[in-house]
Amino acid sequence: MSLHDDMVLMGDRAVTASRALARLSSRRKNLILEAMAEELNTRRDAIKAANARDMEAGKQAGMSPALLDRLLLSDARIDSMIKGLRAVIGLKDPVGTKISRWIRPNGLVIQKVRTPIGVIGIIYESRPNVTADAASLCIKTSNAVILRGGKEAMQSNLAIAEAMQAGGARKDLPEHAIQLVATTDRDAVRELVQLEGRVDLVMPRGGESLIRAVVEQARVPVIKHFKGVCHVYVDESANLDMALKIVENSKCQRPGVCNAVEKVLVHEKVASAFLPKMTDLLTAKKVELRGDAAARAIVPSMKEATEEDWYAEYLDLILGVRVVSSVQAAIDHITKYGSHHSDSIIAEDKKTQELFTEEVDSAAVYVNASTRFTDGGEFGLGAEIGISTDKLHARGPMGLEELTSYKYVVLGTGQIRE
Questions:
Q1: What's the 3-state SS for 275-309?
Q2: pTM score, two decimals?
């Protein structure tokens, strides 16, 4: 068969599986997820061996340390995947929940009820843990899933998907509820996002070029974020010791992820006190600083920031630094250069906090906390299928509720419209 025919067949199988999933009880779905978690643990050595092959190929191909970090599956990360599955088990199944209910004057009872979306396509790069996270959330919400990971993680993704399929099958997971596109042919992405009538929603996770390519080719709805240009603004009222810790965590804990901070904005009244300390702290962590003229006047060792730097998502140990005259100037900078992902203010003044949270139009806005918390697990969602900076349907980390739609169930006793 041709690639087109293969993808159409996957879509048809997914539609059939989604109908079977819609009939499963919450208890049955939880038993399936527990069996998947057990199988991931049982196959731990095989998964690590597959990941080692991907890691070696990545090193040979010259992948950056940040990308290799995304690809790595340590015991701790496998434990995290298993923990994520079990966290999803403990969450309330939203399918069938009555969102609202009201009675019309003619006696009609109208109920707004959560339903599965149907078939979800996930296109992602590097991080093989997405295979487990995405599949578990889709199964819990009775959605069939078609997974298309990057070629750099193919062996890891196959090992994880096979473990989940095998574990789920022991507890009657419908056949083809989880499918992994096993070809590295780039045309498979185009075919997947054009499966109208078979795929109901696509979520791309990866670099900006991948996401834009998906959006340009898609004929089905796409939920996405293009970039994670996240900011921390240090206000004149900030606790500067707190600010140092938050900036260090936001930048250095995992610089290669979308919720890592890329720019720090500092109020001019505290810049002279804060920037030298921040520079010492981050330079010791091998962070390259790129500052505007005011920042470099205080710390001459900073490189000069260009206009392109303010738009850039580095995904590396590089940080843009700007001195601003007010919280409003910080908000204006974020509005112009930000990506509506995650932005944080470090401030003690309540009115300043409120102005920032009201005017910064991002999926997650923080007060005195690290941007690194924008994550389904950290938000108590168990796991996440991705982060959306869209405004329609879903925004921020996408957990169980964001993987459902709704329908109106209308109960009558013979009413007709006059």
A1: HHHHHHHHHHCCCEEEECHHHHHHCCCCEECCHHH
A2: 0.85
